[in-house]
Specification:
Length: about 525
């Protein structure tokens, strides 16, 4: 268990960083010995340069491996190859300063021990000035390389849009996101804009539009407030678009169970209408966010060809929409279905009705991780990785995605809820784990993600621990107030009688009702002026 916890960090990226650090530590040490040698030759003409060189080579040969082992151990323990990825700016530099200083203190101590034990033959001790120089050069090079990598990444992310524009030429430029103000949509908007797409959002703003703050000034961004059931709003939104990403539905089992008729209207009928509108407007690429909850309750590891065993209206509506979209596939319409794992992580519209986010917030704020049942399996994926998967589908050659279904997540991130509790406990150890027997949630599924990995090269970049740390930081920084506030929960927001959805629902009824009734309904909805 412990081993697998650390083996997840042993990615190719990490191995490259380990190799780079080994090289830096050794080059700095060697440079320190050579500098000291040159200084001695320059200041003492009596000295034999050849002898001094032999000495330096002997010292390096006898001690470099001790220094390398100490450096790797200290870097690992300082988290430079794991959580250190999330350290920023001055804090990262402080961690590096501490680590390099510790390496040289331990190295000096090891040499001193070797001397007192009389192992002089084995360890030829380097002069003290070389140790000091080695510390300084290692510090400068380790911090410098990381600083350079950070600046390079920033520079590239600024240049990326321009590079993309050149690359795309006649490809997809304009993307409509239905439901773009939501948890996933608000992250996707930023990802697409940073990659030089222009983005239009059609959203009923059931949870407000704060998530899009800061985007409205961007000339490549446009927000249309409207309902996916409103044909004219949908056609207006489709104009001049090259691709549609459909995220605008009622989300979650409890939220969908509130008003079954409304759920079927939005999650089934409107999705069909939106797809037909896309077809009618010549928008060929249509990415639809389905859910792995279509696998329902299954003891097998499910892949895209497995039998579906939905246990909720939400999942049944997803299956219905998938079938509708696939049936519309043809020369002028190409649906891509993404079955998303349960999403976690911080976003511009945070949700605390999702299990990882909720349990983390509960651990941080209430000191308790309450697990209901716990043995049920679930696959997980970070919200930024979902956005990445959607962008991949927008950019992939049509032939490799049209009429295809892809599970979105990673094989390593299938966890039981108990395991999720353990992961959170590892990061918030002061919280106690409370197991409550029985579990109303019948969903229990493990999923294979080999298709999206193999065919689209998708790889999740964030682990559940990364998401827990992110939520933990957002709570500690005060970015999140009361995590139980209704704005963070779809069910709580939609079950409020005065909510936006009720208004929307009446508004839509009004659109189709005879004129006199329509006026009445709208007035009913908004109250006296
Ligand atoms: N979050 C998850 O864990 C998860 C998992 C699997 C699948 N999905 C799917 O991903 C999609 C997005 O999920 P999310 O987590 O961002 O949800 P969300 O509830 O945060 O966002 C949904 C957005 O759609 C909008 N919307 C709802 N009904 C609309 C309508 N009739 N017309 C226009 N806009 C409407 C809402 O205002 C909201 O901004 C959904 O289709 C969901 O089923 C999400």
């Amino acid at each position: 268990m412990k081993l697998s916890k650390y083996s997840r960090y042993m990615t190719f990226d990490v191995l490259i960083r380990v190799a780079a650090d080994v090289v830096i530590v050794n080059v700095a040490y060697l440079a320190a010995l050579v500098t000291r040698l040159l200084w001695k030759i320059a200041t003492d003409p009596q000295i034999s340069a050849q002898e001094q060189l032999m000495d330096a080579v002997q010292i390096y040969g006898a001690t470099f491996w001790v220094l390398t082992l100490i450096a790797l151990a200290v870097y690992c323990l300082s988290g430079l190859y794991s959580r250190g990825r999330f350290y920023q700016g001055r804090f990262k530099m402080l961690v590096i300063f501490q680590a390099v200083s510790l390496i040289y203190v331990v190295f000096g101590f090891a040499l001193y021990l070797a001397l007192t034990k009389g192992w002089r033959e084995l360890f030829i001790p380097p002069p003290r000035i070389a140790l000091f120089l080695g510390w300084f050069l290692t510090l400068a090079a380790t911090a410098g390389v990381r600083l350079w990598a950070m600046l390079w990444r920033r520079l590239m992310s600024r240049e990326a849009p321009a590079l993309r524009v050149l690359k795309k030429e006649e490809g997809i430029q304009h993307v409509l996101i239905i439901g773009g103000a939501g948890y996933i949509g608000s992250t996707l908007c930023r990802q697409l804009l940073s990659q030089a797409y222009s983005v239009r959002v059609l959203d009923a703003l059931l949870y407000g539009d704060k998530s899009l703050a800061g985007l409205k000034e961007d000339p490549r961004f446009e927000l249309l407030e409207g309902d996916s059931r409103d044909v004219s709003a949908v056609f207006r939104a489709m104009l001049d678009m090259d691709a549609v990403v459909h995220l605008g539905e009622l989300v979650g089992d409890p939220a969908c169970a509130l008003d079954e008729k409304l759920t079927l209207e939005i999650n089934l009928a409107a999705t069909r209408m939106v797809a037909e509108a896309a077809q009618g407007c010549g928008v060929k690429r249509f990415v639809y966010a389905s859910s792995c909850s279509v696998y329902g309750a299954s003891s097998e590891i499910s892949d895209e060809r497995s039998a579906l065993k939905p246990v909720s209206l939400y999942a049944r509506a997803k299956i219905g929409s998938e079938q509708t979209l696939l049936a519309l596939n043809g020369p002028d319409f190409h649906p891509v279905i993404l079955r998303l794992s349960t999403v976690f992580g911080h976003s511009f519209r945070p949700r605390f009705d999702l299990v990882v986010n909720f349990l983390t917030a509960k651990a941080v704020r209430d000191g308790e991780i309450t697990i209901f049942g716990g043995e049920q399996w679930r696959p997980f994926v970070h919200v930024a990785d979902v956005a990445q998967a959607i962008v991949l589908c927008v950019e992939a050659p049509l032939v490799s995605v049209k009429a295809r279904i892809f599970n979105v997540g990673s094989d390593e991130q299938n966890y039981t809820i108990n395991q999720v509790g353990e992961l959170i406990h590892g990061i918030v150890p002061q919280a106690r784990v409370v197991n409550v027997e029985g579990n109303g949630d019948r969903r229990d599924y493990r999923v294979s993600f080999s298709r999206i990995r193999r065919e689209l090269g998708f790889k999740a970049r964030y682990s559940v621990e990364d998401g827990v740390r992110e939520i933990h930081a957002a709570l500690m920084d005060g970015k999140i107030g009361d995590y139980q506030d209704r704005c963070y929960s779809n069910y709580k927001t939609l079950s409020d009688p005065g909510n936006h959805l009720t208004i929307r629902s009446r508004h839509i009824n009004a659109l189709y009702a005879p004129q006199s009734q329509a006026t009445e309904s709208v007035e009913d909805a908004v109250g006296p002026s």
